[in-house]
Write a structure and sequence with these properties.
With 85 residues, this protein is an all-alpha fold. Helices cover 88% and strands 0% of the residues. It is built from three helices and no strands. The longest helix has 27 residues, at 3-29.
């Protein structure tokens, strides 16, 4: 797989993992154990791909960090807008 494609895959995998983390904590706060478990499983799948990528090539830590930030930021902003309506 080419480097740019792998870069984008790691970026999106970690962004999705952080969306999952955010909803995982929301579902825990709501005491919804099944939903939290599903989000927890999704975290593992997305996170595993990112970790395996940057343990193979340390430069993939950069898209992992950027994706993690963007995933959490966008999810929290979406949740705030949804609650304000």
């Amino acid at each position: 797989m080419s480097y740019p494609i792998q870069f984008m895959l790691v970026f999106f995998a970690m962004a999705i993992a952080d969306v999952c983390w955010t909803y995982y904590f929301i579902k825990i706060d709501e005491r919804k154990s099944v939903a939290a478990g599903i989000w927890g499983s999704a975290i593992y799948v997305c996170g595993a791909f990112g970790v395996l990528s940057y343990t193979h090539d340390k430069t993939f830590i950069i898209p992992a960090i950027l994706g993690s930030f963007l995933g959490t930021y966008l999810t929290v902003e979406y949740k705030k807008k949804k609650e304000n309506k």
